[in-house]
Amino acid sequence: MPTLNLFTNVPVDAVVASDILKDCTKAVAKIIGKPESYVMILLNGGVPIEFAGTEEPAAYGELISIGGLGPSVNGKLSSTIAEIIQTKLSIDSARFYVKFYDVEVSNFLVLCYF
Description:
Its EC number is 5.3.2.1, 5.3.3.12. With 114 residues, the protein is an alpha/beta fold. 33% of the residues lie in helices and 22% in strands.
């Protein structure tokens, strides 16, 4: 299950949040090559962030996936997510950083409650 956890110091209203969640879900699924039904996106707005010595609009992301990641995929994901963040929140792509975790299935816990 690819999971993208985004943090930004920009307050995010419900409409913009919904757009970002939908756009990121589609992008992550397409680029990694997994169904949208496997993708989870978390968006945390209004988080105190200082980046490069200022508190100007910035964002940080962590993307965790069981497989599907690598240098070319990570580059496409970075630029696509940065474009979404820039379009929806007016955050310059130079003020966005994303960290990738390609985990082994044995190191990933999935809890399902029925």
